[in-house]
Amino acid sequence: MPRPAKASPIRVLIAKPGLDGHDRGAKVVARALRDAGMEVIYAGLRQTPEDIVSAAIEEDVDLIGLSCLSGAHMALFPRVLALLRLQKVKDVPVFAGGIIPDEDARKLKKLGVRAVFGPGTSLEEIVTTARAIARRAQ
Amino acid sequence: MTRRGSVPATPGARAVLNGDRRALARLITRVEGRDPSVVPTLRSLYPRTGRARVVGLTGPLGVGKSSLINALLQHLRAEGHQVAVVAVDPTSPFSGGSVLGDRIRLDRRADDTGVFIRSMASRGHSGGVAAATREVVRLLDAAGFDVVLVETVGSGQVDVEIRDIASTSIVVLVPHLGDEVQTLKAGLFEIADVFCVNKGDLPGAESASRDLLELAGLGPGREGWRPKVVTTSARDGTGIAPLWAAVNAHETYLDSDGRRAAGERRRLGHELVELVRERVARDLEERLDSDVEVGTLLDQLATRAIDPYVAAERLFATLRADPTGPKE
User: Fold this and answer.
1) How confident is chain A (138 residues) per 10-residue block, as mean pLDDT?
2) pLDDT digit string (tens) for B210-228?
3) Can you list the domains of chain B with their CATH numbers?
4) What residues in chain B have their Cβ under 8 A from chain A's Cβ atoms?
5) How much is the ipTM here?
6) Domains of chain A, first to last
7) What are phi and psi of B127, to 5 degrees?
8) Which of B188, B192, B221, B243 could bond B226 through an S-S bridge, CB–CB 3.0 to 4.6 Å?
């Protein structure tokens, strides 16, 4: 086996659970994480929580980013967290973005979402946080 | 030591053989990261490999490789195959990052354990695949997937390394990519076992297919095989069964007259050379800083007492004289 390269890039899954079609935010974040040197698996629109967890396992990601602008985040995000626990994936943190009221953000954080980014968050903040919370933090 | 020098199964190997998808995924990550601690597991899995049919799909950007893979995936699942997909996308030379977007086009039920999809970034490797793609394919083979579809980076005329990984290579094209002289050019067109004219519902598909058929008929094919030309439309699923039939025809052809074994030997030969090259390069690079003998050579080079060609020969001679034998 060849020499180990320098540390492998952080792998992050970006997905949009649910039915809303607003993926601009997810794409902007995917691009920012790419430019920060991460490998972004972009799963795109209309993913079920089951799809997301299955992709996270197969891609062995260090981090999962969920985006939702439909208002269904309180149904969808906790379901992703529950499925991750069910599959015994305990070391892959989840962050979230979208139109998420402060009160919901607090509840989601209590449930285990590590960070919630609302509109107007700087990309720099998202990248810095993603780097800090990823399974293999770099 | 056990039979035929095989190594005992590591816990990682056992997990993969038992169908543990997470263990498989993690092993792939370590192989991708060129983690040397993974070698015992790769060694113990090696005897369990060589069974999967490995099919490469290559071709320019945007011709519909991912969509075709999706159509093939549905077709193969319906036939009862266990299918793994390895999709390679480019790594940015600027940031080292990448966006791996091929999963978007792949439809599968989340609970279907007969499918495993893995996205890979090329991580600076040229040739259309990543340095670790071959080993990742082999892991999926060991895990029991009987068909592995490999999608290369879609970038153009020289992504021919898939030939060293796949037993059948499909070159995917679309109508209006250029006149028939394009098809005479070297590279991509030479590696096709099967040409697929995708987006066959668009005007021009017929003439594209005709040009390719003509190309296939211009001279003797590689190793006596005349590439098949299939027109498909991944969007509505047209031509997918004929496409797979063409792959099967090529695989059957390989099974005659020892061609499969010869192809395997050729691929293993390339792999062996690559492994030794990496090993030697690593040793030499370490010696550049520490070895007295190399230091002397460098001094002589710097003062122009000797030239680089002689220095290289002398250095190589020390490698051949290295008494450290092979390690088990």
Assistant:
1) 66 93 92 96 92 96 95 94 95 95 96 94 96 82
2) 888 887 777 666 678 889 9
3) 1-48 (no CATH), 50-256 (3.40.50.300), 264-320 (no CATH)
4) 21-22, 25-26, 28-29, 32-36, 38-39, 42, 91-92, 94-101, 103-104, 110-111, 116-119, 121, 123, 131, 278-279, 282
5) 0.91
6) 11-133 (3.40.50.280)
7) 105, 0
8) B221
